[in-house]
Design brief:
Length: about 375
């Protein structure tokens, strides 16, 4: 009976009921995306009255695919084979961007939310769901009085975590990128499954992973334009909202409500894109709070580093003794490649120990998952708690 219910639910997702001339209804195929064994994919979109529908996908390098309409008003195109991975995509219906209504998987974003398609490979990915113990992921709301808001974040706890138990865990704060939301490491980065798989293989330390929203300014109404003649920046927040919230609200909330190792050796920070810059600025400015710092496709300007992080570079021996890890990763065609590599060169110039990781590709979440897989096994491996 249960199998029949599941089959019926699948058929509902894959088909749409339309009226027939003379009464009655029939089912048409709107299954999308349909991933085939040869790694080609068929995309479908029901729009009988549309004049043109195109598919735009990350794997297409900015070249939309033209879709064709059948007699039922279903537009479709089959593309590929596509290299195995996860990709965002969208339809352009008479020039309007739309999600795929047949696909529940989407890319969390402050603005337009594209749909997601996963092309499986012959072997499981580092982020594939495998038959291993799984941690829990929960959505958390918290008071942020330092900025006058109610904040939100996603928190992963590892398999075996007991909120009433005695064991305490290190914490990795992982910050979202520009226009990304607190869900992105979970829904796109699959950080929970990467961590589950690493733990099952004995390649990482159990840890709590906190995924805060890196743009708390979005909690507030749009700031009105300043009056003519106002001072530069008038009407804008006069503080770094995220850093304030992180130090005064987020970390204290996590330490109070979870079984954390509330020491610098038990606390790490990382982030992608804008979040990578936030991770570097907070981690390297507050070495009393963090001993592990990771930047994914980001950096700090050399002049900024040398003028504002003298605590880091004036005594490299002290820094190298205190910091357990400074890690940066970037793709060789990433638009932030120069910033990241210039930052690495500056660290080398000032004799600051670090690891720099250069891979192929650009500013994508395919690479971000690779950075996570490279860094999570390094975290909290040598700290003396």
């Amino acid at each position: 009976m249960k199998q029949n219910i599941l089959l019926f639910a699948f058929l509902l997702l894959a088909t749409t009921s339309v009226a027939q001339p003379g009464g009655g209804r029939r089912w048409i195929n709107t299954n999308s995306p349909e991933v085939h064994a040869d790694q080609t994919v068929t995309f479908r979109y029901l729009a009988p009255n549309a004049k043109e529908v195109k598919l735009n996908a990350q794997f297409a390098d900015g070249k939309p695919f033209t879709m064709t309409k059948d007699g039922d008003g279903v537009w479709s195109v089959t593309v590929g084979p596509i290299e195995p991975d996860m990709y965002p995509y969208e339809f352009q219906v008479d020039g309007i961007r739309v999600m795929d209504p047949s696909n529940p998987d989407c890319f969390p974003n402050e603005n337009f939310k594209g749909s997601m398609v996963e092309i499986p490979g012959k072997e499981p990915y580092v982020y594939s769901i495998q038959d291993v113990p799984h941690g829990d992921v929960e959505y958390v709301m918290y008071d942020a009085p330092s900025i006058g808001a109610t904040g939100r974040m996603v928190i992963y706890t590892p398999p075996g975590y007991d909120p009433q138990g005695d064991k305490k865990y290190p914490v990795f704060y992982c910050i979202s990128g520009t226009t990304d939301t607190d869900e992105v490491y979970f829904k796109v980065g699959r950080i929970n499954f990467i961590m589950d798989n690493l733990l099952a293989a004995g390649k990482a330390e159990p840890m709590i992973i906190v995924m805060p929203y890196g743009n708390p300014a979005a909690y507030f109404p749009p700031v009105p334009m300043p009056a003519p003649g106002s001072a530069p920046g008038a009407g804008m927040p006069q503080t770094d909202l995220f850093s304030t919230e992180l130090m005064q609200d987020i970390i204290p909330f996590v330490d109070k409500n979870y079984r954390t190792l509330a020491t610098r050796e038990g606390r790490g920070i990382g982030g992608f894109s804008r979040g990578g810059g936030q991770a570097l600025r907070n981690g390297l400015k507050h070495t009393d709070k963090f001993a592990w710092v990771c930047s994914y496709a980001s950096g700090i300007g050399v002049e900024d580093l040398e003028n504002n992080y003298k605590n880091l570079i004036e005594d490299p021996d002290k820094t190298n003794k205190e910091m357990k890890l400074i890690w940066t990763g970037v793709g060789n065609s990433d638009f932030l490649y120069k910033m990241a590599t210039d930052f690495n060169a500056a660290l080398t110039k000032h004799r600051i120990n670090h690891i720099d990781f250069i891979c192929s590709g650009g500013h994508t979440w395919m690479n971000a998952k690779l950075y996570l897989h490279e860094t999570l096994p390094r975290l909290f491996q040598t700290a003396n708690y």
